[in-house]
Write a structure and sequence with these properties.
By secondary structure, the chain is of the alpha+beta class. The chain has a seven-stranded mixed beta sheet, sandwiched between helices.
């Protein structure tokens, strides 16, 4: 379990100086989160249940919230347990790696529990430094910037999937690439499905933050930022839904093209089989061991050739007009 503590002096503006301590002791994290001034961010990476238990007990965290924070497969949500607000969400990198981040909001601090190293904590710290004037709004400002970074990760991943979909669409009508299109479209279908399970529930999480900020008169200056994050979340959700429809369209179009190509091949095979069957039938007829008109005569041979050429040629012309050949 790695613990990082960042603290800001109350009222800091501009480029704030914050104290950071890696691998901090639990008692230090407890003291930092229960202080009555300033703002504290305690980040805990990959804790086990036994490692996290002393800190959870010292901070009086609800057992259900702790269980949700330490469970790998959990739906994004925003709930209040007494005086502590609990938020959990998935983070996604551009290459598709996912991790979990859970937040416990206190009066003057935020405790984050991360399962997996995929979230760019240093990038968020830099963003906080660039927007230090928002820190006067307390833990909600930290929550807002953390969720903003989470949603930005969604946008980056969705953009990468969308670009890959564009590449597939560019080779969709290349008959030689149907197998490749099928494989990539299946992978994209899985990727979009994973994104939907992660992104869509975030509408409720960010919507809950927006409602809390809207209801607090002293946080009205924070409202435009909350609305911006909510707008990004809704756009990511809508984009994800659009990607799902686009992937399904590519898959169905590719299947239709494959079926059409198969029908074309079957038409050609059937047409040539019919043409080849004509000489077989005629030579079989003229090869009988019983007398028939032209039997044993030279003109009978030429008659059979003429009949074969006429019927086979007629079939070829008929199939060609129907574009079967």
């Amino acid at each position: 379990m790695d613990v990082t503590i960042r603290t800001w002096n109350e009222g800091a503006t501009g480029e704030p100086c914050f104290d950071r301590s890696d691998h901090a002791e639990v008692v230090t994290a407890e003291d930092a989160l229960t202080r009555k001034s300033g703002l504290t961010w305690v980040d805990v990476l990959d804790p086990t249940e036994a490692q996290f238990a002393p800190l959870a007990s010292a901070l009086h965290l609800d057992k259900l919230a702790v269980e949700d924070a330490l469970t790998v497969h959990e739906r994004p949500k925003s709930l209040r347990y007494g005086e502590i607000l609990f938020v959990t969400a998935y983070t996604v990198t551009e290459d598709g790696s996912t991790s979990r981040i859970s937040m416990f909001l206190f009066a003057h601090g935020v405790l984050t529990v991360r399962l997996g190293p995929g979230f760019d904590v240093e990038g968020v710290a830099d963003a906080i430094a660039e927007n230090a004037d928002l820190l006067r709004f307390g833990p909600h400002a930290l929550e807002l910037m953390l969720l903003d970074a989470v949603v930005d990760g969604y946008t980056a991943r969705i953009t990468a999937v969308d670009e890959k979909l564009d590449d597939v669409e560019s080779i969709l009508f290349d008959n030689r690439s149907s197998d490749r299109v099928s494989q990539v479209a299946f992978e994209l279908h899985k990727n979009v499905g994973e994104l939907r399970r992660i992104v869509l529930p975030m509408r409720d999480v960010v919507g809950s933050l927006l409602r809390r900020v809207s209801a607090a008169t002293e946080k009205h200056d924070l409202l435009p930022y909350a609305e911006d994050v909510y707008d990004h979340t809704m756009r990511a959700a809508d984009w994800t839904e659009g990607l799902r429809d686009a992937v399904e369209s590519v898959r169905s179009t590719n299947l239709a093209l494959v079926d059409n190509q198969l029908n074309t091949v079957m038409k050609k095979l059937t047409s040539w089989a019919a043409i080849i069957a004509v000489p077989t039938a005629i030579t079989g007829y003229f090869g009988q061991n019983v007398p028939y008109p032209g039997f044993g005569k030279e003109w009978g041979f030429w008659l059979s050739l003429l009949v074969m050429a006429a019927i086979a040629g007629g079939l070829y012309v008929a199939f060609k007009k129907r574009r079967w050949l």
